[in-house]
Each structure stands twice: as structure tokens, then as C-alpha cells.
Amino acid sequence: MMTSWFKFASFLPVALAAFTACSAGDINSDDSEEALDEDTAESMSLGTVEQDLMSCTNPDGTNAVMAALAVAVAQDLGRWQTGKDFVQGYNAGELVALGSGSDASGAIGKNRCADGKCARVQALLDLQLDAAANKVYIQGSGTTKVLLNPQALRTRMLGKWREQKTIDERAKDGVTDQAPKEEHKLAFVSAAKGGCDTNFTFNATKTTGAALQYPNQLKYKLAFADIYNPYINFTNLGGGKVSIDPTYGLDEDGTTATGSCVAACTKVTTTNVAGACCSCGGVTKKFVKAAWNNTTFLCQ
Q1: Treating both helix axes as pointing N-terminal to C-terminal, what angle do 150-169 and 62-77 enclose, rounded to 10 degrees?
Q2: CA–CA gap between residue 257 and residue 210 (Å, rounded)
Q3: What CA–CA distance (Å, rounded) separates 11 from 57?
Q4: Among positive and negative, which fits the CA dihedral 276, 281, 282, 284?
Q5: Is 66 helix (H, G, I), strand (E, B) or coil?
Q6: β-pair type (235-238, 241-244)
Q7: Which of 107, 108, 91, 90 shows the shortest CA–CA distance to 99?
Q8: How many CA atoms lie within 13 A of 293 on its CB side?
Q9: Which of 10, 5, 3 lies closest to 189, judged by CA?
Q10: Strands, E, within the chain: which ranges?
Q11: Distance in angstroms (rounded) separating the CA atoms of residues 232 and 250
Q12: What is the rounded CA–CA span in Å between residue 248 and residue 197?
């Protein structure tokens, strides 16, 4: 979880404007000062109730990792279209892997990423590997930490990816409990303290840049990470912004920590933080690069 060193100096005004129902703040705050429409207001009200009732449980670590994958997919691939962008792989048994190539809509999977490999997404997918067994902890509240179960992760990821493909096959615009047909693109805006941990906010638009007609239906493009996963907490903020709420450390947030140790048992970052101070379960240690992935660092 986050501590006082977690700063957002470069984008604090934006982050505050995008604060969700997970935390205190004015959800109507937006640069455009547009009022929320009736559907958005209803969604926000429901989201608030669900947030109040939810428990941020993470018994085998998979809730946190799957929500983090949803953020990384948005950051690296710029959309939630995992039925197109991912395939079934077979390293360490059946698991979810990135695809490649193109279709009628353009690039798919790895071909959508500037680095050609989608490093942040791949780091989280690699947590499915047996090499990560008994090595990856997820920071919880206070001194709590949870050991990730890679076998449980790959079983759940594969099952939910298959579910996403089924949902996408019956996509229909204007139906509140189905995925939309309208294509979308996502752009990272900011990160801020959230209900379970860290709210990541994205601009969500049509591929042309125009406003989405059915933003609430984007929730059903997150079946691959489990719609009812408490760390998802998808929220339509209005003004073209949406957010989800994964565990700090598993996604890059555009900030750097200064003056204190990073409170994260596992950190995914394209910056080499090996040897940097960290805190896992309340114990001060140092980050070590994981043997199976160059952008995964363990607090040991």
C-alpha cells in the first residue's frame, strides 16, 4: 500500500479532479466543467454503494495482479480488447499470452506497443510462470503481505480471457449489461490514492478521438480481469474519464519516490530499481531483479 512518500507533484491538479468514489472529492470536477449525464450519475451512485459494501480481499494475490494487468493493458496497448490482443499459450501449461499481427482494425497485441514487446503487460503475464512460485508477495494493508499463487493466476486468467471472448461475441451498443461494439482508445491521465489502493484514471474516447457514446459499457471489456474483482472497481467519472483501482507497485504511475522506501513487495517498472530501498510487510529491504523478467523487482 502507499505511504506518505507517494507524491503526484507533476499532475496533482489533474489527479484531484479525477478522484473517484473510492475516495473523498468532487466527482463533478473536470476541465470541461460539464455536468454528468443521467446515466453517468446513476453509474457513479451505484459505484459508490458497491465501494462501500466491497471488501478488498486478495487471498491468493490474483485479485491485485489481474487488476494491475487491466491497467498495464490500457497503458501499453491503449485499449481493452483482450479477445483480439491475447492468445492461449502453453509455457508452464495453459496460460494467457500476448498475440501479434494485425486485423481489419489495425495492429494486434505486441504490434500495438512502442517497444514491440509490451514490457509492463509481459511482466504481469510472466507471473503465471512456475518460476514465480513462492517468490512474489503483494503488499497489503500495514504489515500484511500476500504470497501470489502462479498456478491459480494462470487458471483464472485463462478462464476470464475465454469469458471475455464470449462476451465480445454478443457485444451490442446501448445494452447496459453487455460489452459495446463501438471501438475505443485509452490514454493514461493520472494515478491517486483509491479505495483498495491506487486509482488509475484514463481518457476513454472513440478511436477518432470523439466522445464515446456508451462509456458505461466499457465495464464489460474488463471481464478478462474479472468484472467483480474488488480491485477493478471500474468507474465512469464523466467528462470522458474512467478509472480502476489496483495495488500500488504493480503498475507504473508516472511518479518517482524520494526520501523514503517504496512500500511495495513487488514492483513492475521499466526503470532499473535494483538496490533501491523498499518495504515489504513492514520490513525494510532492497529491490532485486526477478530471475524470470527484467522489469519485475522483488523486495528482498
Answers
A1: 50
A2: 35
A3: 30
A4: negative
A5: helix
A6: antiparallel
A7: 108
A8: 28
A9: 10
A10: 86-89, 95-98, 102-103, 106-107, 137-139, 145-147, 185-193, 198-205, 235-238, 241-244, 266-268, 277-280, 283-289, 296-299
A11: 13
A12: 6
Distance (Å, whole) CA 25 – CA 17: 8
* Domain locations in the chain as residue ranges: 1-22+56-300
Q: How far is CA 103 from the centre of its chain?
A: 25
The answer to whether 242 touches 233, Cβ cutoff 8 Å, is no
Cα(235)–Cα(241) distance, rounded to whole angstroms? 9
Note the pLDDT tens digit of each residue in 78-131.
999 999 999 999 876 799 999 999 999 899 999 999 999 999 999 999 999 999
Contacts of 83 (CB under 8 A, 6+ apart): 161, 164, 165, 168, 224
> What whole-number distance in Å separates Cα of residue 60 and Cα of residue 57?
9
- Helix/strand number for the chain, H first, E second: 6, 14
Tell me, yes or no, if the pTM score tops 0.90.
no
